């Protein structure tokens, strides 16, 4: 019997018992749809979490916090020699370093002021890493500074801030903030030290020459002021402490203890040339006992957790297909019993046991694959409905808005392929036993029954 004839024979027999076959296909489709939709929750939430992580940080960036000491009892801060070693690593694009003024500097212009973080940055490295300006230029002279994008938006009227100064989003209202052209304006930095138990102020005049680019994320704010190394040294000379730390007689901290940190960096970031190079750089830093963090490492852990979760969900979904396989087994067993005369005739005209076995396995495969395809189509519809309906339910039931980018269900191409493979394997196993029984049908008994 030719293979084409075998397929035609299978289709004819399925049409004879279409109701039973359709119900078996329906059960298989439901099992496949359950597996895909259940696992799609894991894929959807993983996609949302990964997207959030990628948006919250630069993928090619590695933060370095310090190096473990030889005695293993702590970490030392990063020094110039470390930066030089980092720059020699393979796939490193740039190494940015920042020193933080260890007191909150107060900046004032006319009748406006703002207390914020003051930073000493290496602009050539910052530019290589992607630092950009929205207005003006980079600082070149000692007394020139660049301010963060949100600095002028928070430069408010002098005095104690009042609740009515801010709108419902927590932003400073226009009438209470500086609205002039900040580029080229003189701005005064006030720093402080304690002398004889009393605070002493020093005012350092500066010129604003640039404003940084707006952060990519709406929730990020950059109010920092970027000063030169020379200005930091002037502040250190005034306070008599490294990085302008304010000390008094009650602080209990010896100046000698702080001197070791004078030439260290408070914020160090390594920028890789591409995402593939991040892991290699991170591994080398780990070997040297540096404490690091990168988005790629976090993604690796998140993906591992979700991989375990997805395997578990697929396993649970497979149970539904196994339940459907009982129906396939029952359908095929009844088909063997009902078609015993046909089997006898096929054997009488020369059909081999292998051919008969293949015919029944083809039929069970038909049922499984058709059910899997129907289930896949249905699962896409359910996935779309889930992503549309669940946010509405959460809003109605709890009065909470879900994040706009949150995905509850996502079906990648690999998931239907996995489902079809599982379904096909299960249907073959379900039809194997009945197919073997078909090969053992006695020709004489089958023919006698036909008569």
What does this entry show, briefly?
With 451 residues, this protein is α+β, with helices and mostly antiparallel strands. The protein has 12 helices and 14 strands.
List the helices and strands and how they pair.
Layout: H1 3-16, H2 18-56, E1 61-68, E2 75-76, H3 80-87, E3 92-100, E4 105-109, E5 112-116, E6 118-121, H4 123-129, E7 133-136, E8 144-147, E9 156-157, E10 186-195, E11 198-212, E12 225-227, H5 229-239, H6 255-259, E13 267-272, H7 275-287, E14 290-294, H8 295-338, H9 340-348, H10 353-398, H11 414-439, H12 443-450
Parallel strand pairs: 6-12, 8-11
Antiparallel strand pairs: 1-2, 1-13, 1-14, 3-6, 3-13, 4-5, 4-10, 5-9, 7-11, 8-12, 10-11
Helix pairs in contact: 1-10, 2-8, 2-10, 2-11, 8-10, 8-11, 9-12, 10-11
